[in-house]
Design brief:
This protein is 55% helix and 14% strand. With 207 residues, the chain is an alpha/beta fold. It has 2 domains: 137 residues, 3-Layer(aba) Sandwich (Rossmann fold), CATH 3.40.50.2300; 62 residues, Arc Repressor Mutant, subunit A (Orthogonal Bundle), CATH 1.10.10. The chain has a 6-stranded parallel beta sheet with strand order 2-1-3-4-5-6, sandwiched between helices. The termini are far apart. Pfam families: GerE, Response_reg.
Length: 207
């Protein structure tokens, strides 16, 4: 059986300890790091490269703001937001920044384990209580192409629209080429296109 490496970052010690203890009792999970803030999250990503990183939204440094950094450090890490926030804007921003899942803190240990396995396999997971809100947001068309992307992804798309390659985009933005490729994968998905040429044409049309 393949062990899933999990990191847990939350600024409430009792909650974090409870989650860690619960996960440690599951045979296919190995907790490889714990932290209380965004600096800890980045350090866990760099040192342990967890398969799945549980990340609180409301913690010192702001959980949403560190998503880009974590994915730059460890592009293969799947981020699962574990939060008390039921704000749809927070959920949407988390997914737009690259989180693979969003689960509310009222979840039981079995539900949390299922969510971790889901994102580990490459699928997206959103708490059932929040799924309807995501659907409403999507159908309402609230997000334009530009709004759908993170600030870093917009920078990448601006350069893609100028015809730059991933290598040259990386040099311009001081990013590794594999990180640029990761951003491009996210961008294509969010814009609903299949290649960078289509993305560039659409980006130019919307400007």
């Amino acid at each position: 059986m393949t062990s899933i490496k999990v990191g847990v970052v939350d600024d409430h010690p009792l909650f974090r300890e409870g989650v860690t203890r619960s996960l440690s009792e599951v045979s296919d999970f190995v907790v490889v790091g714990e932290g209380a803030n965004t600096s800890d999250a980045a350090m866990i990503a760099a040192d342990a490269h967890p398969d799945v990183l549980l990340l609180d939204v409301s913690m010192p440094g702001d959980g949403l703001s560190v998503i880009d950094e974590i994915l730059s450090i460890s592009p293969d890490t799947k981020i699962l937001m574990l939060t008390a926030s039921e704000e749809v804007d927070t959920l949407v921003e988390a997914l737009q920044r690259g989180a693979k899942g969003y689960i509310l803190k009222g979840v039981g240990s079995r539900g949390l384990a299922d969510a971790i396995r889901t994102v580990f396999k490459g699928a997206r997971y959103v708490s059932p209580a929040m799924s309807a809100k995501v659907m409403e947001y999507s159908l309402s068309g609230q997000a334009s192409d530009r709004d759908a992307l993170t600030p870093r992804e917009r920078e990448v798309m601006d350069l893609v629209a100028q015809g730059l390659s991933n290598k040259h985009i990386g040099l311009r933005l001081d990013l590794q080429e594999k990180t640029v490729k990761h951003h491009m994968t996210q961008i294509l998905t969010k814009l609903g296109v299949t290649n960078r040429t289509e993305a560039a044409l659409r980006w130019r049309e919307k400007r």
